[in-house]
Amino acid sequence: MSAFVVAIDGPAAAGKGTLARRLAEAFDFAYLDTGSLYRAVALALLRAGNPQPTEAQAATAAAALDLGLTGDAALRDEATGNLASVVAAMPRVRTALLGLQRDVAVNPPGGKAGVILDGRDIGTVIYPEAPVKLFLTASVDARAARRYLELVDKGVRADLDQIRAEIAARDARDAGRATAPLKAADDAYLLDTSNLGIEDVFAKAKTIIEKARGTQA
Fold first, then answer.
1. Residues spanned by the domain of 40
2. Binding-site residues for ATP
3. Binding annotation
4. pLDDT tens by residue, 120-150
5. CATH code of the domain covering residue 21
6. Triad 179, 190, 11: Cα angle to 5°
7. Residues 169-207: pLDDT tens digits?
8. Tally of structural domains, the chain
């Protein structure tokens, strides 16, 4: 039996990661934050002293990616996220990571019966045949406020206006890139999280998955 794949797409700070982890736990599915792959490429470049890589340099870093970097705390730094958005727009980088992501969808780690993948182009490019596609979104203000509080809670000094501007810029890059732009698949379920708590979003997504599976998990 093929693995049951749930694709979760959406812009930065819409709540994809939090939802994906909750769903993976609820259904005992594997989980892959595909954005962490691009962040890991960006982190590798930054640590190599290359904050403005050419596409060829970024593609080389992607091909030689150390998956151990996907667990590095520095992945959540703003500098890493901003460069990740830049390299993610490079076709050669996306090609270098495409096979890895599809392999996880077909063969979930740990022999799990399903997998949750979250990113920007899971339902449109990476695995368009996924039986469940969710597209999470939220207003720029709502997402900026969440990121601001997240940083403050960690004791990091943050500027709300700067965060808002950075998120808006990332949205523009992600939606405007020529290769695999951020957009909802035609058959994706749209979930606007601007005014919803995680429990409400989780309940809606869980019901959608249960209906698609024909079971009650």
1. 4-213
2. 10-18
3. 10-18
4. 899 999 999 999 999 999 999 999 999 999 8
5. 3.40.50.300
6. 45
7. 989 988 888 888 899 999 999 999 999 988 999 999 999
8. 1
